Amino acid sequence: MSYTEEIYDRVVAQNPGEPEFHQAVKEVLDSLKLVIDANEEKYRAASLLERLVEPERIISFKVPWVDDNGKVQVNKGYRVQFNSAIGPYKGGLRFHPSVNQGILKFLGFEQIFKNSLTGLPIGGGKGGSNFDPKGKSDREVMAFCQSFMTELSKYIGADQDVPAGDIGVGGREIGFLYGQYKRLTGLYEGVLTGKGLTWGGSLVRTQATGYGLVYILDAMLKDHQMETAGKTIVVSGSGNVAIYAAEKAQQLGAKVVAMSDSNGYIYDPEGIQLDIVKDIKEVRRGRIKEYADQVASAVYTEGKGIWSIKCDIALPCATQNELNLEDAKTLMANGCKIVAEGANMPSTREATDFFLENGFLFLPGKASNAGGVGTSALEMCQNSMRMSWTFEEVDAKLQQMMNDIYAKISDAAKRYGVEGNYVTGANIAGFEKVADAMLAQGIVM
Ligand code: NDP
Description:
This protein is an alpha/beta fold. It has 17 helices and 12 strands.
């Protein structure tokens, strides 16, 4: 049995009931096999893989808060500090009823390699709660955030662990969390990213993940003598990543014809009007269905099915495992051969394999959505310098970062004889830097 297979079996045995974590580890280990086999003695001697798949620490706590009816509610809170080999832990907080320790371990594990790919000094972490901000009043969200931060503040810091937003955690939540951190510690420091522009945030952070996704997509297309302009695109989700991916795609001359939320999807053959989506989602916190009430050319369909819409490019930007093998086959049957992931692990393992076996141009999330955390690291940088860059400066750095990531993953795939396999390329390129740092620092993590 190979070293990578041994470690996968060990992960399954030692982390029962965490299928998403198993899935993420398997995908990474499968693509690292080439590197590991070539350096097996060195990595085995240091038990490097055993150390890589084990979080440095998991903090788990209760979050009691009082709702608008005066009732005490209790949620679960977590922070997974996975790997600090190349910098302080960095990764978002997710507030969603589906959150559990296994999902945060999968996300934290992925984050290690993604952060490494950005070329910036940030380690891997992730956190969150099973709290659902949907339908809660601003006061309830504040009460929850303050309680969550009261516990979390003991374990984070600008040079230690710097959380950010993720599903269910946007500007409002980051504001409440930051205010409470400051009140508890007395420190005005860059402990969270995704802050408001008047209190330490970075321009472009809001747009960064979506813009970055389209920048790297464009870099890949150019490398294959194609362009984004003129393409028809389907974007799933209608949250932060989806909205700004759609915006940049439109700016580059593509037509976005569909978007979704967890209830259903809209199809607008005339091209989605993003100002309306932004008003529904960012201002009114409404449902995507409302778009079809306002736009005559649009049709709303309840339920899943967005991948049945004909397109040239699919950008899954909602959540994990939202695109399965059947969806992948449908995309191909409709002529789509280009997929770039905006969400984390939105394609199931079977769908990913199908893309790779059928000659898709496929960009995995850990490379293609790295612009978000990369720009968060630029926010940390500006906070440390006590200054801020202009929109154009940050946007230029983001675009350069995404071009560099494309170059890195493409080069790693070539070096290991799997040209065009950006899944393997991303895992190898992300891993190499972290593994070197872990070996150099001795048996400390
Ligand atoms: P948001 O909460 O802003 O939006 C998430 C969107 O996905 C919403 O439209 C939501 O619909 C939809 N969605 C959530 N769960 C499901 C589901 N089970 N089925 C269908 N649709 C669903 O989150 P983000 O846009 O920030 O994040 C989206 C993805 O991108 C996540 O995987 C996240 O980890 C990843 N990501 C985000 C980054 C960022 O900077 N924001 C950075 C890197 C990765 P509804 O409103 O109905 O819940």
